[in-house]
Amino acid sequence: MKAGRYGAGAAGLLLLVSLVGCTGKGTASSGPRPATPQQVLDKAVKRLRAVTTYQASIALSTRMRGKSDHLDGEVASRPKDRAVQFDIPYTIDDSAADDAGSTQILLGDRLYIKNYNLVEVVHKQWIGLAVSRLKPDDPVMLLVATMHQSDPLTQATMLTASKDVHAVGRETTGGKSTTRYQGTFVVAEALAKLDAPARAEEQVLHKPFGPTVNFDVWIDDQQLIRQLSLVNRDGTKRRLNATMTYSTFDTPVSITAPPPKDVKNLNDPKDIPA
Predict the structure, then answer these.
(1) Which domains does the chain have, with CATH numbers?
(2) Given CB 3.0 to 4.6 Å as the disulfide criterion, which of 57, 123, 189, 198 pairs with 161?
């Protein structure tokens, strides 16, 4: 009786070990599937929603109506309260008179502009404007949209509209190990993924150009965008190239309004001297 009982128990134990071994072997051979490029973009959006600050360099060039413009700038932002500081050392265009440079600060509804060419005209260091007074076709609205273009959450959200995003390979960007992805998206489909304020601003930027954007994006292992390159062409006559390179996330940034005594407040953007 005992031998039979022990024999049955041993047989059962062997069967259990066999089953566990098979299950373990199957799990080891399959393993967790790597995330698809689309899943990586979705994870980046989720991660970037938690970002409190960022700093970035932006290079923007356009070609419209036979005229070329280019600017390089530095951006610091607190996305949660839509505070942005945009420093532009200078801009370059086809004319001989290049812009000497400017600083823009956006705090809530208030936009402050410091343009060195205007100091002698307005007799103040800064111009102050209410963004809520701007119309969609106002030239200053383009400036506001450009200031927000570097927002990585907005850009990542638009990238999720891509139907052909694919991985290119591993690369080092800004000292960070990243994976590079390429793809395209239809502007109208990408805009539909944004909230109303972001949609209005991105529409201002992309409206003069083509319906499709080509992109390269470098995402690190923490699902943070480290670099983004966008190209929007409408034939050979109109072109938008934008590159954003992100240096820091979630580190303190100081964005404050200029002293009131240094600000020339304007009730209408049309009051800005030409």
Answers:
(1) 37-267 (2.50.20.20)
(2) 189
